[in-house]
Design brief:
With 418 residues, the protein is α/β, with parallel strands linked by helices. It has one domain. Helices cover 15% and strands 43% of the residues. The protein contains 6 helices and 18 strands. The chain has an 18-stranded mixed beta sheet that branches.
Amino acid sequence: MTVVEENQAGDRGPVADAPGATQRAHSHGGPGVPDASRAARRTSFDVADFPLPSGREEDWRFSPTERLGALFAAGADSGEAVLEVSAPEGVEHRSGATAELGAGTAFLPGDRVAAAAWGATRTAHLVRIRPEAELDEPVLLTLRADGGTSSGHLVVEAGAHSRATVVLDHVGTGQHRGGVEVRVGDGAQLTFVTLQEWQAGSVHVGQHDVVVGRDATVKHFAVSLGGDVVRLSTNVRYAAAGGDAQLLGLYFSDAGQHLEHRLFVDHEPVSCKSYVEYKGALQGETARAVWIGDVLIRAAAEGTETYELNRNLVLTDGARADSVPNLEIETGEIVGAGHASATGRFDDEQLFYLQARGIAEAEARRLVVRGFFADVIQRIGVPALQERLLATIETELQTTMPAAAGTTTRDAATAEEN
């Protein structure tokens, strides 16, 4: 991939050894670095504490607020989203009011939509993996919306020293606002995969809060392929020392789609790790992708090791990707911290190499994109899901109408369904 924009700060080595490193608090990042510390950002369960966004606020300036109107409103929903659960032995599922399930202990709404979703949720769900359980099969959750505006809240609890994979798939159509809180017990290993596979015309704004226990490991995968607008905020905190969080994601934005991923990793306990890697591709007029990666290393978080990476592959003219990595560091006593982002087009040398071996240009382009995404997909660890995602990406790459029309195979498939 030919890099046309690069924002690099730090590396995996000790920050204290870097040129100009100091022991005082500092931050760095690309254009659009917020003036206020992430530690000072507002959180509240009361929607009244968040003014209606104008689109000029730092948290909303990349988002198409005019397309999110119904999700900002407090009060009852006009539709409903149903959660279907398929789980192996060792998993408990209960539903009820948020208070009945003890929801909110690991979740703090960070914007108006998240607070409105919390207030409007009629039925919340708890999926609990018992302590020391080792699940050989994934827990499959399907959230299905059928028009209208819907709200929901999901709690996923991995008991101490358990090992499990949970897959949450969003399907159907409508405008959905949802909260997810993931509690990872001490010594647990949890892989959590969220898929945004909405039909055309759908809008989804979600917030995921993850709390990592002592010596626990969590992998959070976010895959956004469907819907007209998707804005997903993922926040990670550590309950004790030794936590390890990996935030991985991929997205493919077509003409008219807006796919936005915002991440915040809050390091406060000592000796914790975080690694962030998101990859996206864009094709078609007005295709848009936004990635915001914030990492805060507090003064007490000695021994922290963190790195965040975002790569975007622009396949056609008219597509736009915004990538803003930010590091805020309050101590120099860390193992390492860094970030990088790049947005570019196909590497002509890669294409020439493949074509020189008899591969047609169109097929060569598909191979490059498949390879671009394959590394992230293979880390999910669920073979059937990995094959499905690769097939979906392959479909995205095969246009059935002239490029000037801005129509992709997903648009054609949706038209056939209707």
